[in-house]
Amino acid sequence: MYRDEILDHYKNPRNLGTLENALEAEGENSSCGDHCHVYVHVEDGELKEMRHETDGCAISTAGASVLSEEIEGVDVDRVKELNRDWMIDKLGIEISPMRVKCAVLGLKTVQEALEKD
Q1: Where are the domains positioned within the chain?
Q2: Which of 52, 58, 47, 43 is nearest to 18 (CA)?
Q3: What are the pLDDT digits (tens) for 48-100?
Q4: Which of 4, 34, 80, 115 is most buried (CB neighbours < 10 A)?
Q5: Please, are residues 42 and 23 in contact by the beta-carbon 8 Å criterion?
C-alpha cells in the first residue's frame, strides 16, 4: 500500500522535536484525528530549521517528516507558495481525495507558523 520510504518516515520521523525561540503553529485534521505541532526557525528570509511533533496516520506523519527535510534552507516566500500538488509529489504515492488533508497537514501548519513572522 505505501512505499517503503513512506513507512520509514512514519516509523522514524525526521526532525522530530521542538525548537526554542521558534515560530510555532498547531494543526489538526478533524476528519481523522491527526495533530501536528510545528516549530520553524527563520533567519534572513530563509527557513533554517523545522521540527515537528506529529501524532497521526502514516501519511500525515510521513508528510511532516518529508516536509522537514525538503524545506530547510528554502526561502520563506517560496515555502508560503507550496501547495498540495507539491506535497503529494514529494510523498511519491497515490493519495486518495479522502487522504489529501492528511498529506498536507504539516505543510499547512508550517505556512500558518510563517504567517506569524
Answers
A1: 4-114
A2: 52
A3: 999 999 999 999 999 999 999 999 999 999 999 999 999 999 999 999 999 99
A4: 34
A5: yes
Instruction: Mark out the alpha helices in 1-117 (DSSP H runs).
Output: 4-11, 58-71, 76-81, 84-91, 100-114
- What pLDDT, on a 0 to 100 scale, did the predictor assign at position 3? 85
Please enumerate in sequence order all residues whose Cβ is within 8 A of that of 115, keeping only pairs 6 or more positions apart, or say none. none
**Phi/psi of residue 90, nearest 5 degrees:** -65, -35
Task: Write down how long the chain is.
Answer: 117
Q: How many CB atoms lie within 10 A of CB 70?
A: 16
**Topology classification of domain 4-114:** Sufe protein. Chain: A (3.90.1010)
Pull the grid cell for residue 33. Answer: 484525528
Distance CA 86, CA 75 (A): 16
Q: What value, to the nearest 5°, has the Cα angle with vertex 63 and ends 10 and 114?
A: 135
Cell numbers linked to 113: 507558523
